[in-house]
Amino acid sequence: MTIQQSLLKHFNTAFAKDAEVVAYAPGRVNLIGDHTDYNDGFVLPAAVNFGTHVLASRRHDDAVNVMAIDIDNQPVSFNLSQIAFDDKNTWSNYVRGTIIELIKFVQTSQSNATISGADLLISGNVPQGAGLSSSAAFEIALLKALSDLFDISLSGVDAALLGQKAENNFVGCQCGIMDQLISALGKKSHAMLLDCRDLSYQFAKIPDGMALMIVNSNVKRELVSSEYNTRRAQCEAVAKHFNRVALRDVSLVELNEEKHNLAQELYKRAHHVISESERTLAALTALNSNNMAQLSHLMAQSHRSLKDDFEVTTPELDYLVELLNSVVKEEGGVRMTGGGFGGCVVAILPKALQAQAEQVVQDNYFNKTGIEASIFICTAEQGAFSL
Ligand code: GLA
Fold first, then answer.
1. pLDDT reported for residue 67
2. Band of the pLDDT at 112, cuts 50, 70, 90?
3. Contact at 8 Å (CB) between 306 and 351?
4. What is the value of pTM for the model shown?
């Protein structure tokens, strides 16, 4: 039985009827450009072969019943007329927040669609809390399912913006647009250079012969969301200091000229963001010209900057980067990926070095940290709204 067949069966057992639509959206890995998206900067992610399925069927009333197989497989219900935050089943807030935004979208886009209640089944294999965007995959799969179910015309960019608003306005994470946009619009075998200011994008092929390896440190830090929101507020404070819309509008030269007027911590945060956005553009050129030595250098600088200036790495992530670099050297790149505070490291490396890279992690990581790492070899995939 395929995954889809077994999910259809599960849906039928749970709700005593067939699912009308099946949607799927991928998680992502970011090659370079972290904490730049909410500063209107550049990012270079790829959608990956891990993701979330949402199966849905319409109801004739306003009830929404949602069941997450991988969480507790118990239905959570709420009514469309009164969508409140759920302190107990916190995962359901992604559904609640996303539906609120979709309803607003339908109202303001003068679409003829009507949203009624629905029965929903969720299942995914993106490791949670690992910095691989399990929540964006969830939101985008849900938006794909609901837009198909209620015949709402939604572009990939619309879906990404709605998913982001659900997190910003309802869930309480002030995330940027990267995760939702790549989950919606990723392209097979390619990374996407996204300009987070105007949401224009272009694709860069992952060179043949290169593999994407993700290693999960399996460390999850507490307070990720509040630390994340603090970083964002610090970046906005520096933009405000310069009287600019975002750090995108401040150059490194200007930042350095103002260094003595800024608290050291704020200077470091802004230094990371501005230099990271420059590195991301340079990484696109390196990838397009298959210049792995240059990519290697840029990814190493990115990791150092996230460690020293943005202070979002952990000793475990730093150690994984050190281990993988001892194998990959200048033939590919290694860095932490995503929001940080635990989570994963990404390596782009020649397929010929894959086994050796896995070995170095297996031989050393547990001995030093007492934690087992999980290793995934990934491929770049299509997004949920890609044509
Ligand atoms: C999280 C957020 C993204 C982005 C990254 C860091 O994944 O959801 O918007 O800010 O962190 O690059």
1. 97
2. confident
3. no
4. 0.97
CB 181 within 8 A of CB 345: no
Instruction: Name the residue with the closest Cα to ligand 1, atom 11.
Output: 339
Per-residue tokens: 379: 């491929």
Q: Which residues are catalytic?
A: 179
Hey, what CATH topology would domain 3-201 get? Answer: Ribosomal Protein S5; domain 2 (3.30.230)
The alpha carbon of 222 and the centre of ligand 1 are apart by a number of angstroms equal to 16
CB 357 within 8 A of CB 347: yes
Query: What separation in Å is there between the alpha carbon of 174 and the centre of ligand 1?
Result: 9
SS3 194: strand
Structural tokens at position 75: 């239905």
Tell me the pLDDT tens digit for each residue of 166-218.
Answer: 999 999 989 999 999 999 999 999 999 999 999 999 999 999 999 999 999 99
Backbone angles phi and psi of 372, in degrees to 5: -85, 135
Ligand 1: residues with CB < 6 A are 30, 34-35, 37-38, 133, 175-176, 178-179, 338-339
